[in-house]
Design goal:
Elements (H helix, E strand, L loop, with lengths): L1 H23 L5 E2 L1 H4 L1 E7 L6 H18 L6 E5 L3 E7 L4 H9 L4 E11 L16 E5 L7 E5 L4 E2 L3 E9 L4 E8 L1 H15 L10 E5 L2 E4 L17 E7 L4 H13 L8 E8 L1 H30 L1 H27 L3 E2 L1 H30 L4 H33 L3 H32 L11 H5 L1
Length: 458
């Protein structure tokens, strides 16, 4: 008896205590697009795109979005031969996030020949051919928008090995620390040596960093750079500035330099905005449906199984606490998000775990009617019931695994919730339900009275 009570105390401490710790640590479940709002984007690749290129592109998109920091966990999946679905839950800057996933990112470093005010600039030229001279618009020039006359690209995105935003304590400004490949480092040294040969203030000291034909930055080579050597060693520091937006600009520039080259030119086919209000309404509706269903289940359990119904009700709180804790921890560690489909899976899983209690309780009642004592009925009944519970849960778990591998999008959220709930049901049956009912059978609620275990069987 003492061992059962100690085991029960441990299970309750793990479930309820774990939930309290998770909430205190801020590890609450992350909500998906349909529950907290956000943006959904449909991207279409050109006909005949290699499937492997699509997979590479999706991987780059995921890293781009995650580095923005304003999206909890992007859900980016391939559908069919040429379509990519992107869901961005909780996105704060819709346009910025859309650009991150849809931008082809043909990144190049080009020498600057001359700069012109927009009003007196020559016509802009075709930016797609990076092997030719071009006149490109630069929105963030020293005195406002200007047009830069640039030469052919001397470096491309593949030459960038790493780029990180840093705060340069020497200058008190935000900057991007740039590391190049060995081949890129040599070419960069030649390029910067040529730029350093021009006087300070000459536009030819600038290096234009161009993404998809748009100049995103045009830093000038520092005065201390030798025109004989250039910036050698394969590393460089691109100073952004110290203004209010300097940190964000440095992060965006570093992000572009790291993941600037998507291998596929996508077209944005559709954009759908889900408001936070609509998401909150969906979440509230799911909670109300679950609470109502749980209330009805508790009434039925108490009417049908009396004292054992109390065990099931407490067990459902253990189940809920563990499931919420798991979603919170996995959301932090693996980026798992709770979607409306996941909420549906959780509601269904309440039925799954309730079925396990019913299977056990019916075995107990049947054994008592066959002449066993209450203690014998609970001990023998669990052995037979657990085989049935394990068989049923195995089927549910296999279904969840198949759904996860074969489905896409929201159906995966349902599969995850169902799979986690099924595993928890097996754990709770072994660690909580058996101990609780067997301990109850050895108290005054085991025999005698209509509310007892014996009373439920008569």
């Amino acid at each position: 008896m003492t061992r059962r009570l100690v085991g029960l105390a441990v299970v309750l401490a793990i479930s309820w205590g774990g939930l309290a710790l998770a909430i205190a640590a801020g590890l609450t479940p992350r909500l998906g697009l349909d529950l907290q709002g956000g943006t959904a984007v449909v991207l279409t690749a050109p006909d005949g795109t290699d499937p492997e290129l699509l997979e590479v592109a999706v991987d780059i998109m995921v890293r781009r979005i995650e580095d923005f920091g304003s999206v909890q966990e992007p859900d980016i999946s391939i559908a069919g031969d040429d379509t990519v679905y992107v869901q961005l839950p909780g996105v704060e800057d819709e346009q910025r996030a859309i650009e991150a996933v849809g931008q082809t990112g043909l990144l190049s470093f080009r020498p600057v020949f001359e700069s012109f005010p927009v009003a007196s600039a020559p016509p802009l030229t075709d930016p797609d051919d990076i092997t030719m001279d071009a006149n490109l618009l630069y929105e963030d020039g020293s005195f406002g928008p200007e047009v830069l006359s640039v030469g052919p690209a001397e470096l491309e995105g593949d030459d960038v090995d790493e780029a990180l935003p840093i705060f340069d304590t020497t200058s008190g400004a935000w900057a991007v620390s740039l590391d190049l490949t060995s081949e890129g480092g040599e070419q960069f040294a030649e390029m910067t040596a040529e730029a350093a040969s021009y006087p300070i203030g000459d536009p030819r000291r600038q290096i234009a960093i161009v993404l998809d034909g748009a100049v995103i930055s045009a830093p000038a080579v520092n005065p201390d750079v030798s025109p004989e050597i250039g910036i050698s060693g394969g590393s460089a520091l691109i100073t952004v500035g110290s203004g209010d937006d300097a940190q964000q600009e440095a992060q965006d520039l570093a992000l572009t330099l790291r993941y600037g080259s998507l291998p596929v030119a996508f077209e944005v086919s559709a954009v759908q905005k889900v408001s936070a209000t609509l998401g909150a309404d969906s979440l509230q509706a799911g909670i109300i449906a679950g609470a109502l269903g749980l209330f009805l289940v508790t009434i039925v359990l108490l009417v049908m199984y009396r004292a054992m119904g109390l065990v099931a009700i407490v067990g459902l709180t253990v189940f809920a606490a563990l499931l919420i804790t798991l979603f919170g921890v996995l959301g932090e560690v693996q980026g798992l998000t709770l979607t409306l489909a996941g909420v549906t899976g959780i509601i269904v899983s309440v039925g799954v775990t309730t079925d396990s209690y019913i299977v056990y309780f019916e075995r107990v009642k049947e054994n008592i009617r066959n002449g066993m004592t209450v203690e014998e009925a609970t001990d023998v009944g669990f052995t037979a019931a657990f085989r049935t519970i394990l068989t049923a849960d195995t089927v549910s778990l296999l279904a969840a695994v198949l759904l996860w591998f074969l489905a896409v999008g929201a159906v995966k959220g349902f599969a995850i919730a169902l799979g986690l709930a099924t595993v928890l049901d097996i754990f709770i049956a072994r660690s909580y339900t058996r101990r609780a009912v067997q301990a109850l059978a050895r108290t005054g609620l085991g025999e005698g009275g209509k509310f007892s275990i014996e009373g439920a069987a008569r």
